[in-house]
Amino acid sequence: MSEKVKILINGAFIESKATEHLPVENPANREVLAEVPLTLLSEIDEAIEFATEAFKTWKEYTIPERARLFLSYQHLLKQHQKEIAEILSKENGKTFADAMGDVWRGIEVVEHACNIPTLMMGETVENVARAVDTYSYIQPLGVCVGITPFNFPAMIPLWMFPMAIACGNTFILKPSEQTPMTAIKLAELFIEAGFPKGVLNVVHGSKDQVNHILNHSEIRAISFVGSVPVAEHVYRTGTHNLKRVQAFGGAKNHMVVMPDANKQQVINNLVGASCGAAGQRCMAISVAVLVGEAQNWVEEIKSALGTIKPGVWSDESAAYGPLINQQSKEKVLRLIKSGYEQGAEVLLDGSNCTVEGYENGYFVGPTLFSNVSADMDIYKEEIFGPALLLMKADTLDEAIKIINNNPYGNGTSIFTNSGAAARKFQHEIEVGQIGINIPIPVPLPFFSFTGWRKSFFGDLHSYGKQGVRFYTETKTITARWFEEDVPGGNVNMTIALK
Ligand code: NAD
């Protein structure tokens, strides 16, 4: 019988009493690595109760104490980076190099959390009236929640709980049921770093567990990353229950290729940005809009894309790994078929891809479509596979119009040697993350990660999943420091009620 993935409640890694479990598969060969419990709702309630209790003491830890614990956590994550990456590669399928990057991007957020003393600074203004000053404090909210997808099993949980906890909140993490083992490893190191019990809790499951959390009265804020339909559901339900919600959804990211760009640079970047991680990145480039003369580069794009091969995580020559599961593979194959039916030209078809020794794996070869129009299913749906769509535009204006009409607005990029074209693009494009001669412009943690239209549902609090503002509330104090007519009078910091 395979190992059961533990849950973490109040500092203890325990086996859930759940009667239902889902297999955690290695997508390269379908080997069952472990079984993940559909955590009992009563166990989730218990985790939330402990987190509520832990909040009372955790928020009173001094800010330097909190920062120091994150320094220890950063150190442990770095020490164990390879071990985490191996667990991650096995359950997610991505190559080891890619998995190391996944963990590293998460470590960077932990490093950002070490800066919590300065991040939590409020604002002050002296003399708003005679002998009256105003200043603000940033304070934690209470119990916060993170619900994460399968495609970045380390980075995305680490986008969430370190910042929330550094702010003084306690946290319930519900990682993807497809990649729960990485999350538990991250949690083990968190406990080893010395954080008090109840500050981070990890529960597993899917729809029912998420819905229970969304409706729980003690939860103050919810961070979600995943597909658009679930992001919409989490946002609607969470806000209906008057919780603070930031929900990041899916994407369809375009790269505009101007004819004055460096052709070889464009081609190299297109290959990695479209098929890297089997196209299972929310920031993957899935559409290249070729402007003017760049439309003559199709054959070269095809031959570059045609040379890369998927493989198992430990194969250093593999460009990318398998898709996450059978359902994802079926979706990609259905969309490839629809490309033929709806009139796209299929220049490369990865449907019948096998990897020697891993014939069972969910592999799809690099796939390339040209003559794509906006009414085709391959354009309308997020493929989330190693596929690139080529579209044509006569001008930059036309390319910008295509992108701004797309229902998603996560990432985009332009490749050009013209400053004027780049400036126009960054100004007029309506997308969250923009790259100029950079294919996947994921900002570092001290910037906000955002999204427009269906790629992000949130409000003004949500200026970034890494930002402290989402996980805190501000308190503004106006203080009269002296009795007005008593020069040098007492210096009581009383809140002025006048
Ligand atoms: P998903 O929406 O299937 O699952 C995400 C989380 O929601 C999981 O924890 C899952 O258990 C839970 N969930 C699934 N169905 C649910 C339901 N009906 N009700 C409540 N909860 C449910 O997403 P996924 O397949 O794991 O991840 C891939 C998606 O995530 C892609 O669409 C990708 O673009 C998106 N993504 C977006 C970003 C971003 O920053 N915008 C980053 C990474 C991934």
From TrEMBL:
InterPro entries: Ald_DH/histidinol_DH, Ald_DH_C, Ald_DH_N, Aldehyde_DH_dom, MeMal-semiAld_DH. Signal peptide: none annotated. Keywords: Oxidoreductase. It holds the Pfam family Aldedh. SUPFAM superfamilies: ALDH-like. Residues 14-477 form the Aldehyde dehydrogenase domain. CDD domains: ALDH_F6_MMSDH. The keyword Oxidoreductase applies. Belongs to the aldehyde dehydrogenase family. This is CoA-acylating methylmalonate-semialdehyde dehydrogenase. It comes from Chryseobacterium paridis.
